[in-house]
């Protein structure tokens, strides 16, 4: 049985905003669509930027990678602001709970020496890498052409600060609640020979003029770094008495899987674009050829150190 | 002797926050600093110590997500329930929605612009602490833009004028007023943007530019917009503290910054004040249940709080109240009436409707404006009322001349003579440019090479860039649909409203 509630029905004059109707017909639209499609201004800009006199405030020329219609790309996660913060609130809430558990039982302070050394001189310094990635991603938040792309970059930029803060909190916990590990880790980032290829690489990517090239150069590093440093150390950690590391590293692995979704879809959209596809593909290949080997070198320097320090620790 | 477990130490909050934010930064050594931050020197601002920035709020990323997700959960619950219960039928009147049409066409796109350009600051400011503050604001502004789109989405289904807000912001004549203001700020350097938007817009004039819409919502039964307003309040208070910290930081860094910032305050006060003219017209004429008059709001939020409260504090740094502020004070009895006259005359080309104030509304205006309304403006409305009683409606035939700077039609009067239209002219590269006021002329003369670039909607129509030479062609190009525009009485909104309230609603189960 169910009761019969009578309510007033008024016929809608239209189901969505006109730009959405123009694309999909007059039918109910998703909140993602209404919040994303055609939001970025397109034309009739009043003045030229004093910091880029030959371009408009919004201009496809900020990157060599182009989409005929930026809204042919949609974030496969469907993130606009609210689902984004809701998703990340859960991720960071879980992380916080895990960290508190580890802190209460001093499981990070009492990590085996080899693992403490790996964390202090390789993993925790990556919080600076994350910070550099933030600077690169936020360039896309400003210069990507189309709200569909720009908002992904915005979320990615904020994510990177989140990652940096997760790593920093692990660093504070490893030191038993103080900043000492963060201080030595920063010194490693600045001077440690094993970290210099990565730092040099990130600094060079930070000054790349084309926002999309910067984003993809970082992604070449991420694609090697995340599997190697987080998921890739899982087994060794669990077998080597460093289960605590596995527990915190899983959140970065989760994040990276999420990051892959929108970037992979974007790369496909670039390659498959009806008008710019061939030129995009050439640029993508050039970007891979330029930055791929550099990424291998930089991440290789870190994995070598990790392997050396953990040698004999794992069974 | 048993050894006590070492107690977990705790970092002081300020130090912990610094470790989680500004300490992430490092001095680059493989690339030139100037190449990394190429835009922080050309405006003449000198910063000696970026670490002198005091974090105006301490919000870590995890806390940010948590608060914002909770706030949005509450906000969207209100939106859903309002939509489900046909809450729009409980508005004070359908004509109220004209204010919200102006809001989504004029203000929501500014939230988006702020989102994008705070990302620019988050990239290009040299100090990591202000960069992080700018990043937070960039994300917040995206929230405001998107939650506004969703808040108003339900009205769009039942009423005209909302459907093409984004295209309209790029094209329609009265929306070039807010658009050109933000374009002006974004095309400037990073420090001028910070002063224009964070300080002048978000701090100095926010209670006159933004809040009147939210208060209007609350008085007129618009629960979704009011809920949005409350939900944005804590974000806005962070933005206001950022604006205040920004100006103090820049002023403290170098004495040479003071005259530069003074000139920006002078410019951006007038720029934002001129844009607020549209809000003034909205407050006094579009709300079926008015909140307070423009004049009262101006006196309270600007004269008392800013001139009386903020500027005495800034005097310590050598900052004086904005240039031309006396002209703004002198016209507070006139501004809203003059602007609404323009909107009323030209609403055949607008994506909202206008109407002659009712007798009751006119009586309220006369109470609020004892020094000007009965003498100067009531007679005009009485004339309109007589014409309308005879079945007519007066619209202005032809196109108005626009101010080269603020882009409002040139209908403002002289500060000392409310019967004489204020015209100012400047010569630049052999051409004459027209401005509406001392303030706009001063702004033009300071940066003529910038303001000659303005995309003036009326000029563009005459140049044939707006869909064609006739009014219907231009309206079509604007994206205005039949009945979005013109007179409220007899408009589709008004007729639907009457039908929905006729006492015989269609009922279905």
TrEMBL record, chain A:
Gene3D superfamilies: Ribonucleotide Reductase, subunit A (1.10.620.20). InterPro entries: Ferritin-like_SF, Phenol_Hydrox, RNR-like. It is an enzyme of class 1 (oxidoreductase). Its EC number is 1.14.13.227. Keywords: Monooxygenase, Oxidoreductase. GO terms for molecular function: monooxygenase activity. This is propane 2-monooxygenase.
From TrEMBL, chain B:
Its EC number is 1.14.13.227. GO terms for molecular function: monooxygenase activity. Residues 413-455 form the YHS domain. The keyword Oxidoreductase applies. It catalyses: propane + NADH + O2 + H(+) = propan-2-ol + NAD(+) + H2O. Residues 486-498 have a biased composition (Basic and acidic residues). Residues 485-509 are annotated as: Disordered. It comes from the Bacteria. Keywords: Monooxygenase, Oxidoreductase. The keyword Cell membrane does not apply. This is propane 2-monooxygenase.
